[in-house]
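S.,

Sequence below, as promised.
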Amino acid sequence: MSMTSQNPAPESSTPDHHHNSPPPPPPPPSRYESQKRRDWNTFGHYLKNQRPPISLSDFNFNHVLEFLRYLDQFGKTKVHLHGCVFFGQPEPPASCTCPLRQAWGSLDALIGRLRAAYEENGGSPGSNPFGDGAIRVHLREVKLCQAKARGIPYKKKKKKMIKLK
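The prediction came back faster than expected:
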């Protein structure tokens, strides 16, 4: 008795098999995509809660700067003020009353996600308020301020010159 004669035809040869089953669900969004969507929704809610409300089509870089300052109240990074005895110390020996702020790296990543979300939601890359020079200046100032407050030198890396023979 031949083994091939008793095997049923493969399922793929039945013409109606794929028409009756629902399509497979799309893969879940990546962690980055989920965070980007949450950030975009949070920014939209922030604009909506302003008095008067600001539409997503009418905001500009000033609203983005205000949003970044607003987020500081939820920060977890201690930023020592100039008069604090721990100013400039990377690991202070005791606590102080200096404010908590959003860490520079968190703000930088947030702006990157919002910049991408803006364009994915129909915004023009050439007029992206998240890419405005004022935002870059603000982020640079936050980085330097936090570095000084913690005693961490941030020196701009010099580009190495390549000598050709």
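Helices lie at 3-6, 17-20, 31-48, 61-71, 104-120, 133-150.

Coffee later?
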